[in-house]
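Journal club prep, notes for RB
We'll compare a predicted complex against what the paper describes. Inputs for the iron/sulfur cluster case:
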Amino acid sequence: MIKVTAVEPDSIAEELGLRPGTELVSVNGRDLEDFLDWEFLTAEEEILLHVRQPDGEEIEFEIERPLGEPMGLALEPPRIRRCANRCDFCFVDGLPEGLRDVLYIRDDDYRLSFRYGNFATLTNLKPRDIERIIEYRLSPLYVSVHATDPVVRRYLLRNPAAPDIIPQLRGFAEHGIQFHTQVVMSPGVNDGAVLRQTLDDLWAFGPAILSCSVVPVGLTEFSKHHLCREPTPEECRAAAREAESRWPAALAERSVHWVCGADELYLRAGLELPDPEVYDGFEQVENGVGSVRWLQQRIAAEAASLGGWQERRIGIVTGAAMAPLMPLVLEPLTRATRARFELVPVENTLFGPSVTTAGLLPGAAIRDALIARPELELVLLPGECVNDDGLFIDNLSVGGLTDRLPFEIRLSKDFADALQAPLAA
Ligand code: SF4
């Protein structure tokens, strides 16, 4: 059963009399568990829908509608599947106390992997989940492999019951499921020979493994530092070179580069970022793989529409991780807009200075950094700093921030999106 949370005006759902609180019980006699069942089972032109209204009345509707016409309702979010692992580098373990409850949930959910590209380990799949992935052809899935050696993987995940990933992936691949994969590189555990073996094993799958990324492990002040550590520049260089060594064969055999290090791996290694074409269409840009090259391409594509900013002073808030790479982005942005961009690197006061990603910046740290910059006319914040409700990780809202500052603030994904409209008069 799934609950309806909203109904669009003039939609099929409204015409049927569905309303917030209506329970969707089954479609064509099959019980509904979550949004996946709903989407896949209602993909037919004709369906038999069984609902329970908020007053307890049970109704069956025979619905006929043109293929693709939405029903016009929103569903309650699915109950998140909890993670079965205890990785040393777990982000959740690294959170300080006192944040929103939802941030402490360790989710490891194949449904969100399919829908949003969240990485999942597939260690908590039940037989029913495996059936659904195959029946609904949930592809591609984003999978944290880390190591194909089962002993190393179980050690990294701190889960002695983690299934062997190779047969697991093969079982899905035989049914046409494809994967984007990642290796979070923990030095001394899954780099060196283990990384080499992991890439060999994944490549041997053939086209079922669409891509692979190598991401350096990130720790906070609160992580289990006695169990894992950050990689050295030399270790990052070795991992990046290991990935790069695969490119000639991958290009020759499949016309893709297939594996690449995250931007942060290159930054920590002190290596120049690869050319844009290495990222094969930026399939893992949300994972920090190719973000800088992607931004450069977005700016180049939008350059003609970025006029009217000449000599304006625009602050760019960023985490310390991206700050050294930002000139690569701001230089073409300055050429396109002729504005004066000023970088505002913000140190993470909540997680400690070792946490440098923009998405984890607390609103209070941003506010404190910006209070000292009254001369700015506009400030762009990374869009990933806030959740869907406009809240930073420390619960400060964007509104709470703007109230305290004398300039306009805009959230931005690629800079070009936030520079289309002129400043408010
Ligand atoms: S898979 Fe590991 S890192 Fe991810 S939530 Fe579970 S314990 Fe944390």
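Talking point for the session: The longest strand covers residues 209-216.
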